[in-house]
Every structure is written in C-alpha cells, then in structure tokens.
Specification:
The protein is an alpha+beta fold. 46% of the residues lie in helices and 12% in strands. The chain has a 5-stranded antiparallel beta sheet with strand order 1-2-4-5-3, with helices on both faces. It is elongated. The protein starts with 9 loop residues before the first helix and ends in a 10-residue tail after the last helix. This is Spore germination protein. Belongs to the GerABKA family. Keywords: Membrane, Transmembrane, Transmembrane helix.
C-alpha cells in the first residue's frame, strides 16, 4: 500500500488509522465497524464535533441499504446513497487525517479506494453578540466569534456579491490552523494578494499558538522594532465588510474572534465604525477629535515636564500650571512610575473577578489617588495629567496604536529630562521618522495620502463625506 494513498482493503486502512490516531489511547476519537449493503465498513469521528441526531439518522440509512443496492465505487455511493449536502471523496492520507481531526465524519467501505467524508461537524461556539472592545454608539450589535464558518457567514450576509472570494489555507505543522482570505476579486491588488498567499504557504511553524498575532509575526518580519501596528484588528463584521469593499484583504483565523485587515495605514487604524453610523458633520467631529486626542496623549506630559524645566516659557496667565507642592521625587520619575502603575492597574482589572471589580476600583482610586499625593510620592498636577493620558488612550480602538504612542511618550520624557528642549525636539523627530519610514505589509507608504501627497484622498481620510450615491 502506498504510504500516502489509502487502500481498497478495509483492514489495511483501519490498521493505519488506528495506529496513526492512537484510537486506543484517545477516548474522544471514536470508530465503529458496521455493515453497509453487505460490506464491512468503518466510520471514524471526533466525539463532540458531530451532531448526534444527524449521526443516528445516517447510521439508520446506511444499515438499511440492501446488498443488491450497494454501489460498486465510492463515487457512485456519494451520488446515489448519501443523502447529505457536504460530501467529499479523498484517497490521500494526509488530507483524510486532517479532515478527521477537524471533526469531519469519515466512512471507509471494503472495496472502495476512496474515503467518504461527510461534513456533519458542529463546533462549540458562543453567540454572535456585540464585542466588548469594538462597541459603537449606534449600529449593528453582532460580532465575530471563535468559529471561522460563523465569521465568513457574517461577512457573506453583508456582501451578497459573486465577486466576493473566500480562500482557505492552513498553517502550523501540528495545529493545522484554518486561515481564510476574504477579498473582492475586481477591487483587490492582485500582486499583493499573490504575495500574501506565498507568505502563508511558506510559513514553517509548529503551531499558531497565539492565533492572529502568531500569523502577523510570520507575515511581517521586517522592522519588528517599530511599535506602530502593521495590521488593523476588528471584531466587527460591518467594519471588516467595509474594508473588503474598499479593496483591502481581511484575514480570518480559526479560534480567533478578530479579523486582520491588510494593508493598513495610520489613517485606517484611527478610523472607527462610529464615524459612519452618524451624519457626516458628527462623523467628521468624532474623527478629528480622535486625531487631536491622540496627539495630546503624546505631547501633554513631555510638554509639561519641559515647561517645568523652563518656567519662563509659560505664557502669561497660565502660571497656575506650575507645581505648587514640594517635589520630593523628580517629575520624570513620577511620570515613569505612573506609566508603569497604570499598566499594572489595567492588568489587575483584567484578572479581577467581576464581583470584586467595583470595590477594588474604589479602593484603588482612594489609595492611589488621595494618599499617594498626601504621602509626597506624587504631585497633584502630575496625577491630573497622567489621569487624562490614561483615560484618553481608550479613545483609540487599537490597543497597538495606544501602546506605540505610550512607548514614544516614554522616550520623549526620558530625552526631555536629560537634554531639555533638544531632547524634546529629538523625540518628536524620532516619532515622525517612526511613522514616516514605516511601511504597510504591501510595501506602500504608511502615511498615504500624506506621503506621497494626495489632497483629495487626504480630505477623505480627515473628513467624513456623504455616500457618493446620495449626492445630487
């Protein structure tokens, strides 16, 4: 028997599968020998992935087939004696074992040189409720889940076009994780699409343990030190559908409730669904506010530190921003400690049981807020500005962008504390270079249409216009 192809002998096929799948050790891998039309047959499936009612009906049907009605080949069997929609025929062991481990019901019949694969699987899944991270003030309340078939259906529901393509790939020698590329065939950049397919096919890892983050690291290996995100992540099917219609590629990974959007520029990452669920004036205000707040979160604390070093630069009438209490710890160390403390509180909030989140939040606010100032560790002005920065970070839906700005802000604080105004300027230049020299995964400019400059496209990125078909 060819080591890569199955045999027409049922006993040989069973010996191979029983050894390969370790059915005597794995309690959840079930096999059962039955008689179908007077022939010996054996079925393999994963317990918990198959629908019990459907399995019972199919077994009743198989056992009721008479010997004279039994087809002579697997192909004829699939055409005349399998009353189910999703049926496939395979004779390659690698493909057969992949489908069995994915939850597909496999039927082997004596004398048939191909396996009958019946996709009757069902996965444990939660409901498509609104995602916790990508909430909107107005709009649809459904979101992606961990089951990839549900996610593709949510996109198909919104784009009912024959131009929509969904290609499946696999990555990971052990995990064999399903990856789906979603795109519009007439709008996508096919050169970038082919490059993306090649990169996925060339992935040589044992498993995508962290799902999309593992895939992102495999797809983009250049400039890993640049913190600004190369992908946009969303848990909203309406956002993913809109990006597909704009010619982008959406990457879905099984077991992950997020969609990856590529290629992605800095303007794509700042955009949110709320910009389009409100009228153009409101949407433009929300978008410009998000841009302005992002700039403020970066500049506020370094600028305050610089002004405390150069009090003579404080404009007339703004002398009240000066630190009034004695400074026991240098301001730069206060800011750095609070940057670390805020992340500590964020991690604590994630791991805090829901029943304790409210009392612990009140305790943290009292102890870290009031007593930290009274004890002399922090000045009230420092606490105020860091509180604004901490809250304003959540105006960005992208955690990756928030942390990129945080890292750049810390660099600015350190350089400003050491070199003064020249360190402040150098840090801003470093920020501009980090954004300006960054590239999307397709190799294009990260800040297009700002560079190369395109005024018409830039205005569309900054301002929310009406839909083209709605204009008179």
């Amino acid at each position: 028997m060819d080591s890569k192809k199955m045999s027409a002998s049922l006993s040989e096929n069973m010996n191979y599968l029983n050894n390969y799948l370790s059915v005597n050790t794995n309690f959840d891998i079930v096999y059962r020998v039955i008689r179908v039309g007077g022939r010996e047959a054996c079925m393999y499936f994963i317990d918990g992935f198959c629908k019990d009612e459907l399995m019972q009906k199919m077994l009743q049907y198989f056992m009721s087939i008479k010997e004279e009605e039994m087809p002579t080949s697997a192909h004829e069997m699939s055409k005349s004696n399998l009353p189910y929609v999703e049926v496939d025929l395979k004779d390659d062991w690698e493909q057969i074992t992949y489908f069995i481990m994915s939850g597909v019901f496999a039927l082997f019949v004596e004398g048939y040189d191909k396996c009958l694969l019946i996709d009757s699987r069902t996965y444990p899944a939660r409901s498509v409720s609104e995602p916790e991270k990508d909430k909107v003030l107005r709009g649809s309340k459904d979101g992606f889940v961990e089951t990839i078939v549900f996610n593709t259906a949510l996109i198909r529901r919104r784009i009912r076009s024959s131009d929509l393509r969904m290609e499946m790939f696999h990555a990971g020698n052990s995990s064999q994780t399903d990856i789906v590329l979603c795109y519009m065939d007439s709008r996508v950049d096919h050169s970038f699409l082919n490059k993306l397919k090649e990169r996925i096919n060339e992935i040589q890892v044992d498993a995508l343990t962290m799902n999309q983050e593992s895939l992102a690291e495999c797809l983009y290996k250049k400039k890993w030190y640049n913190p600004f995100p190369k992908f946009k992540f969303t848990e909203r099917p309406d956002t993913a559908s809109a990006q597909i219609l704009e010619g982008d590629i959406v990457i879905l990974v099984d077991n992950s409730p997020s969609a990856m959007i590529a290629p992605t520029s800095i303007f794509d990452i700042v955009e949110e669904a709320d910009d389009y669920y409100f009228p153009p004036i409101t949407g433009t205000y929300l978008r410009l506010s998000r841009f302005l707040i992002a700039i403020l979160t970066y500049l506020m604390t370094p600028t305050f530190l610089l002004l405390m070093q150069r009090p003579e630069w404080i404009p007339s009438g703004f002398e009240f921003i000066m630190v009034k209490e004695p400074t026991n710890i240098p301001l730069v160390w206060q800011f750095l400690l609070l940057e670390l403390a805020i992340d500590g509180l964020r991690l604590a909030a994630v791991n805090t049981p829901n029943m304790l989140s409210t009392p612990l939040s009140v305790m943290a606010a009292l102890v870290l807020g009031e007593f930290s100032v009274n004890s002399g560790w922090f000045n009230s002005e420092v606490m105020l500005y860091m509180a604004f920065v901490a809250i304003a970070n959540y105006t960005q839906a992208s955690y990756e962008l928030s942390y990129a700005l945080k890292f750049m802000r810390i660099i600015n604080l350190i350089l400003t504390a050491i070199f003064g105004v020249w360190g402040y300027i150098a840090a801003i230049v470093l920020l501009v270079l980090a954004i300006g020299t960054n590239k999307t995964i397709s190799g294009k400019s990260y800040i297009y249409p700002l560079l190369p400059f395109n005024l018409k496209q830039l205005s569309k990125r900054l301002f929310r216009y009406r839909l083209p078909g709605s204009r008179e």
